[in-house]
């Protein structure tokens, strides 16, 4: 009886957030999903453009990214209002198919867009480098006046006073925030499900996870509900959704983008730092995002940040050396992922870019450090927050919480782990210098994707959080192919974890899914990494 | 009986370090202290130049700082060997008077100097910007091949393999390390006494503390035993000795100078970060030290560092605004300190530099954060190290260890304190911007100095560690004067701590002692701070 009461109590509370979402959905754009189903198209991003729900203008607008939008605005060809409306419409349709939103901000977005248009009419100039650019924002990033529950039922009542600093800076540059996006319980899944608004689906295939924790952003960018998405990443939470949804995602070196004003459970945990970063539809937009943020000197407000403005990095194909890591030695990537890297190696060589094999350095130590430092309190804080509301702990939350110590670490254990972390960072950096490697090309995940509820192997992305090296996931231009990428039943896994991931490879399921790769830079060489990614993507597309 | 055994055991071990020191002292320069006493001079730095022990050349060499030395070397007028020998001689005399050294490195220093001279003879060029500059180094900074006990008896056997990174960088620039210097037990006193090599005295007056924890450096620079000293500071440990010994000391923003290769008890403690920094005999030499370190990109080795090379800061008297903080609201500075700041205010105004009153912002919160985060383990680590050897815990160690929690903090308590620390840093920075204040001029300590064994009020320096703002201590050009700086018996102290410090003011004792001031910059504006200090010192000397 008591358990029923408790359940009904957390459900009642969760309903508040569901109602907010429901109420916020622009009703004029509700669709009959059968219209999409009738296209018989697995990839709903393609389906939506076939089904007739969007006008040609709306399709063009939602296929345009930052530079294109600014050009249309400057030429007076499009208004911000029309563009923002088109994105809201597409997002409304996308939400019905993918359940990616936690709240639409349609009215304020349209008002902001009108003001931008007014400004342009009156002055002939754009307000900034993101004038009229529709931006989606992950749930736990504070939006002034909104309730930010950070996917915890017990936090549903917390109304945020002020925009998070990252949101303020985006708005100051002219961005229009039109939708908030879903994330998993505890923000510590590479998947996207919670007890409040439920599971987000992948626009490429609804059986697949959109990745996580910025899974709502992955779906939003994949479906083109926004131009830029603002995610967060402490173990792959920007890069996995980007990888799974055929998008671009950048995790900078920690302490470059401001996290000030984020809602979470773990404030003050500094052993492994999460960070804010962008998802987008191309590398240029990731770069524009960072330039916009760093040019505004966020360290003048959030003093924990490193005062490094955006630098124009000098990287040229002739001097770039790319280390390629095909396998981290722990979990073997699926055949399409290996093939994408083999193809990349060929294309890079054909473009005159030097490549070397990157042998991973002590990734098990990285995982050991991460799994202890993610929850140095033994998960007590997060469990206490669940207990407050009585919401059930989901399996992937339990998985994350039980990787490390079940008891709080002692202060001395945390000191030892901090020292091991710094040692590993020094070693890895020294090795890159010693081997003359500027960037490392590697998998974004062990597979091309993962079924809903299943992604558990974090280390292809998380190792770079342990090392605090910037990393960007982007499409490899290779698509999984059941004929080329045969499952190798004879493979003898190195561990249970390797076995689990290896068995997750299903050539039929993944056939046709684009393969992502991840490019990793040196600590604090974020600009050099992004420039290198441009060069490498150019080679992969050639 | 057992306690006697234990005592004899730690004494035996301590004797190893004492023997190393004793053996290292260059015997040819041992003096009869009566020669100094015969000068009837309280300030032994003055006495040593009067007493005839040093030749005119030796006096001139040991009064010359970096630029002067390089000029003489370039002109072929002095050899590095002669200069280094002069400094070793002066240091040997100084050590007998002040007990500031833990080990002389005379032989290697002379060899290094000879190699530098050879290089110059053969190439006509100096090896770097610190060619032949004698540098003293605090005990716990690793010197390859030496035993670094970090003033813990139980660490006396630990032989260091490699030089600390800071030492490597100094040597690469041509510096000659000729002597290692004393520090207090636990490295957490504003004084300089330990169970191994004992108490260091102040060259200005042997009754006074040289300050600490870099007290050996304070005495060394004050007596001109070296041109540059390498200290460390987590609460005032560079600035207090500089202040007490009429020297210059700079604590940079943390994570700019490398601490990699330091020996200590608290590795991995990151709540409040200590840092390495220079002591010197003028501001130019502090700046040269930093330029030398930052130009060598230490972050390429010690990846925890912020990758900021030395910047030429643009600061001009016409645009500089100096906030003056006469009193932190907790402990009232002694009359000579207040007078130095009043004088400074007049001189700054007379030089056309804008000044405003700086009202301290929540310094009690800063102290609360510091006292909890210095020893978040309740002091267990340090006490365990004492127990290992059985060495007695000294009163000032006990004082430091008992400021915070006697029990280890919980992980959640450390998170909360980390968040409070970041909040205070943001607030303080915002306030400086809001008030238009570029730098804050304030006391280096509540008094002009302190009797041996007595300095306990840390907050005039430590607040800037809590805030991670760079700070430099330097002579104010005002000297304590019993006639001008009367004790005010009518003053009603605000607290026991205030009372203790107020009663410590002894006009007779401090008469004639130079008064230090401290200048504080914005977080990460280290170069701007040092440039501002140059301008302000210029005004104070005018």
TrEMBL record, chains A, B:
Its EC number(s): 3.5.1.4
Top class in the EC scheme: hydrolase
Database matches in Gene3D superfamilies: Amidase signature (AS) domain (3.90.1300.10)
Annotated PROSITE patterns: AMIDASES (PS00571)
Catalysis: reaction(s): a monocarboxylic acid amide + H2O = a monocarboxylate + NH4(+)
Key words, A-Z: Hydrolase
Amidase domain span: 83-530
InterPro entries, per database record: Amidase_CS, Amidase_dom, AS_sf
Protein family according to the UniProt entry: Belongs to the amidase family.
Protein name (database record): amidase
Organism: Bionectria ochroleuca
């Amino acid at each position: 009886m008591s358990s029923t009461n408790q359940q009904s109590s957390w459900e009642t509370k969760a309903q508040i957030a569901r109602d907010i979402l429901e109420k916020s959905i622009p009703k004029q754009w509700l669709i009959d999903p059968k219209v999409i189903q009738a296209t018989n198209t697995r990839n709903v991003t393609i389906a939506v453009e076939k089904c007739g729900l969007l006008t040609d203008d709306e399709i063009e607008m939602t296929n345009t990214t930052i530079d294109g939008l600014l050009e249309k605005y400057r030429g007076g060809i499009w208004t911000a209002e029309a563009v923002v409306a088109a994105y809201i419409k597409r997002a409304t349709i996308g939400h019905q198919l993918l359940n990616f939103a936690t709240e639409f901000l349609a009215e304020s977005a349209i008002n902001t867009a009108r003001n931008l248009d007014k400004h342009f009419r009156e002055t002939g100039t754009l307000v900034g480098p993101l004038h009229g650019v529709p931006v989606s924002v992950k749930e736990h990033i504070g939006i002034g006046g909104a309730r930010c529950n950070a996917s915890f039922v017990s936090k549903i009542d917390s109304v945020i006073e002020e925009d998070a600093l990252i949101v303020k800076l985006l708005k100051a540059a002219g961005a229009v925030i039109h939708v908030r996006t879903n994330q998993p319980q505890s923000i510590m899944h590479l998947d996207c499900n919670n007890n409040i608004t439920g599971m987000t689906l992948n626009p490429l295939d609804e059986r697949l996870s959109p990745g996580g924790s910025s899974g709502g952003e992955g779906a939003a960018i994949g479906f083109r509900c926004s131009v830029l998405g603002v995610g967060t990443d402490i173990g792959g939470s920007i890069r996995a959704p980007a990888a799974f949804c055929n998008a671009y995602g950048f995790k900078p070196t920690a302490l470059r983008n401001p996290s000030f004003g984020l809602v979470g459970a773990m404030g003050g945990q500094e052993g492994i730092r999460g960070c804010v970063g962008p998802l987008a539809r191309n590398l240029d937009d990731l770069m524009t995002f960072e330039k916009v943020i760093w040019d505004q000197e966020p360290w003048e407000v959030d003093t924990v940040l490193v005062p490094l403005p955006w630098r124009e990095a000098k990287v040229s194909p002739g001097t770039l050396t790319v280390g390629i890591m095909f396998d981290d030695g722990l979990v073997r990537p699926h055949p399409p992922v290996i093939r994408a890297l083999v193809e990349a190696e060929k294309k890079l060589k054909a473009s005159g870019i030097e490549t070397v094999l990157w042998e991973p350095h002590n990734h098990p130590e990285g995982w050991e450090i991460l799994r202890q430092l993610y929850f140095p309190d033994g998960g007590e804080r997060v469990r206490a927050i669940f207990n407050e509301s009585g919401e059930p702990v989901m399996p992937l939350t339990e998985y994350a919480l039980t990787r490390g110590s079940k008891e709080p670490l002692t202060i001395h254990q945390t000191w030892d782990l901090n020292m091991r972390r710094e040692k590993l960072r020094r070693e890895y950096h020294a090795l890159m210098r010693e081997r003359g490697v500027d960037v490392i090309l590697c998998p974004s995940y062990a597979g091309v994707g993962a079924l809903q509820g299943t992604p558990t192997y974090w280390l292809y992305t998380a190792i770079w959080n342990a090392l605090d090296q910037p990393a960007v996931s982007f499409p490899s231009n290779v698509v999984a192919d059941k004929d080329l990428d045969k499952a190798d039943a004879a493979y003898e896994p190195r561990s249970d974890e390797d076995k689990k991931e290896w068995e997750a490879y299903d050539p039929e399921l993944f056939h046709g899914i684009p393969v992502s790769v991840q490019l990793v830079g040196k600590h604090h060489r974020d600009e050099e990494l992004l420039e290198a990614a441009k060069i490498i993507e150019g080679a992969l597309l050639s």
